[in-house]
């Protein structure tokens, strides 16, 4: 299997830490709103990748988290906590907001035929583990406290920007540059590991006691920063080093860069051997965003009469590292293509023959080449047009569907 590793900026042959097993983590949603189909695309793509590992004979321990505290409106340290913003918007507690939107999300990804993760941790369930990691960073000199927060000192991190390749002097998207609200931060790009319930967070709804000290609060009360959450959950559920870490390209410059810095400073070993990043879904060649009226939900797709699996079919028509443009016309085309595939497979009958070795080999070559879903999907139509018997066509296509996940039979 060859996959593109963001960390090395090249395709590499996959080699598991433990033979026959893949430890796989994906950054999950912040559950304060209904996820738009751009976010759902990322879930389908991780499912495709997971299914590909399974198809190659690996056991996959897949973890995807829920962020239910600590993710500020920016990806750095500025703005309001998204969960509290959602709670105020709807007059519900953050816990109820999380429950509501986790349910919607899980219904959506079930409709899209994604496999269930081995673990679905909520950040609020791992506060103690986060505090232990933050204390370890303080003890080792990688972090420092101010009255407002505990920060990671990026000047202490080894090769801090190696994942993104960015120049911190010129660009630090989302890390609080231009919005530095703590004058005691040593570097503008230092990021919060723990926010005290003080300053702009004085009225925080979600907070916990901690071993950290601030003259402005009692018992170290506060809440974790977004980045430490994933590091702590990965360590607790998968270990210090995992095989594959996946997220969107928006995670590269801030979130994943910070995960690497804090995890590797604590553990002294690589956080992940392979970093995979999916590109964005655009709409009418522009940004998909609720604020622009283009943050379409799966419910809206269904209301227009489309099958959720036709949306999955649409997602499979583009490589995970390529941008994909969504239009309702493209969705209609995907529905037509999906219906044609389903009808053609149905016409093959009920008797399942033998998987064709030649086609299976070709399918493996395509899907194992950095998860090339468009070529793998196209091969199903080549099978339908081939001279194979109906029984063998059916067996071969159903074999492919173990990866494609279109629920063809």
UniProtKB/TrEMBL annotation:
<keyword id="KW-0862">Zinc</keyword>
<keyword id="KW-0436">Ligase</keyword>
<feature type="binding site">
    <location>
        <position position="290"/>
    </location>
    <ligand>
        <name>ATP</name>
    </ligand>
</feature>
<feature type="binding site">
    <location>
        <position position="255"/>
    </location>
    <ligand>
        <name>Zn(2+)</name>
    </ligand>
</feature>
<feature type="binding site">
    <location>
        <position position="27"/>
    </location>
    <ligand>
        <name>Zn(2+)</name>
    </ligand>
</feature>
<protein>
    <recommendedName>
        <fullName>Cysteine--tRNA ligase</fullName>
        <ecNumber>6.1.1.16</ecNumber>
    </recommendedName>
</protein>
<comment type="similarity">
    <text>Belongs to the class-I aminoacyl-tRNA synthetase family.</text>
</comment>
<comment type="subunit">
    <text>Monomer.</text>
</comment>
<feature type="short sequence motif" description="'KMSKS' region">
    <location>
        <begin position="287"/>
        <end position="291"/>
    </location>
</feature>
<keyword id="KW-0030">Aminoacyl-tRNA synthetase</keyword>
<feature type="short sequence motif" description="'HIGH' region">
    <location>
        <begin position="29"/>
        <end position="39"/>
    </location>
</feature>
<dbReference type="GO" id="GO:0005524">
    <property type="term" value="F:ATP binding"/>
</dbReference>
<dbReference type="GO" id="GO:0006423">
    <property type="term" value="P:cysteinyl-tRNA aminoacylation"/>
</dbReference>
<keyword id="KW-0547">Nucleotide-binding</keyword>
<feature type="binding site">
    <location>
        <position position="259"/>
    </location>
    <ligand>
        <name>Zn(2+)</name>
    </ligand>
</feature>
<keyword id="KW-0067">ATP-binding</keyword>
<dbReference type="GO" id="GO:0008270">
    <property type="term" value="F:zinc ion binding"/>
</dbReference>
<dbReference type="GO" id="GO:0005829">
    <property type="term" value="C:cytosol"/>
</dbReference>
<feature type="binding site">
    <location>
        <position position="230"/>
    </location>
    <ligand>
        <name>Zn(2+)</name>
    </ligand>
</feature>
<keyword id="KW-0479">Metal-binding</keyword>
<feature type="domain" description="tRNA synthetases class I catalytic">
    <location>
        <begin position="14"/>
        <end position="335"/>
    </location>
</feature>
<keyword id="KW-0648">Protein biosynthesis</keyword>
<dbReference type="GO" id="GO:0004817">
    <property type="term" value="F:cysteine-tRNA ligase activity"/>
</dbReference>
<dbReference type="InterPro" id="IPR014729">
    <property type="entry name" value="Rossmann-like_a/b/a_fold"/>
</dbReference>
<dbReference type="Pfam" id="PF01406">
    <property type="entry name" value="tRNA-synt_1e"/>
</dbReference>
<dbReference type="InterPro" id="IPR015803">
    <property type="entry name" value="Cys-tRNA-ligase"/>
</dbReference>
<keyword id="KW-0963">Cytoplasm</keyword>
<dbReference type="InterPro" id="IPR024909">
    <property type="entry name" value="Cys-tRNA/MSH_ligase"/>
</dbReference>
<dbReference type="InterPro" id="IPR032678">
    <property type="entry name" value="tRNA-synt_1_cat_dom"/>
</dbReference>
């Amino acid at each position: 299997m060859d996959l593109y590793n963001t960390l090395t900026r090249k395709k590499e042959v996959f080699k598991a830490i433990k033979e026959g097993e893949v430890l796989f983590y994906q950054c999950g949603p912040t559950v304060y709103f209904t996820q738009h189909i751009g976010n759902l695309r990322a879930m389908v793509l991780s499912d495709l990748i997971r299914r590909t590992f399974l198809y190659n004979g690996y056991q996959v321990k897949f973890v995807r988290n829920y962020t239910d505290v600590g993710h500020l409106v920016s990806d750095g340290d500025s703005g309001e906590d998204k969960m509290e913003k959602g709670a105020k918007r709807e007059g519900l507690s953050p816990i109820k907001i999380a429950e509501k939107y986790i349910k919607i999300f899980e219904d959506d990804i079930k409709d899209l035929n994604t496999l269930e993760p081995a673990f679905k941790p909520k950040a609020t369930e791992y506060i103690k583990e986060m505090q232990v990691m933050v204390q370890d960073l303080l003890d080792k000199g990688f972090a420092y406290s101010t009255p407002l927060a505990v920060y990671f000192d990026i000047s202490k991190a080894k090769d801090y920007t190696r994942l993104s390749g960015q120049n911190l002097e010129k660009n630090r998207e989302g890390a609080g540059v231009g919005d530095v609200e703590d004058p005691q931060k040593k570097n503008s790009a230092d990021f919060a590991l723990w926010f005290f319930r003080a300053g702009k967070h004085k009225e925080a709804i979600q907070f916990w006691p901690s071993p950290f000290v601030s003259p402005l609060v009692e018992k170290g009360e506060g809440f974790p920063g977004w980045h430490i959450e994933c590091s702590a959950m990965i360590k607790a559920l998968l270990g210090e080093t995992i095989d594959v870490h996946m997220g969107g390209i928006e995670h590269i410059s801030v979130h994943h860069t910070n995960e690497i810095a804090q995890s590797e400073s604590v553990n002294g070993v690589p956080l992940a051997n392979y970093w995979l990043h999916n590109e964005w879904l655009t709409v009418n060649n522009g940004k998909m965003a609720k604020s622009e009226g283009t943050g379409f939900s799966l419910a809206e797709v269904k209301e227009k009469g489309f099958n959720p699996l036709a949306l999955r079919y649409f997602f499979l028509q583009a490589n995970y590292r390529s941008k994909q443009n969504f239009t309702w016309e493209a969705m209609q085309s995907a529905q037509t293509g999906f219906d044609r595939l389903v009808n053609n497979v149905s016409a093959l009958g009920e008797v399942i023959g033998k998987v064709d070795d030649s086609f299976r080999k070709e399918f493996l070559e395509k899907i194992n080449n950095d998860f090339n879903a468009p070529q793998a999907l196209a091969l199903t139509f080549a099978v339908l047009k081939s001279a194979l018997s109906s029984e063998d066509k059916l067996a071969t296509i159903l074999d492919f569907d173990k990866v494609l996940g279109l629920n063809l039979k």
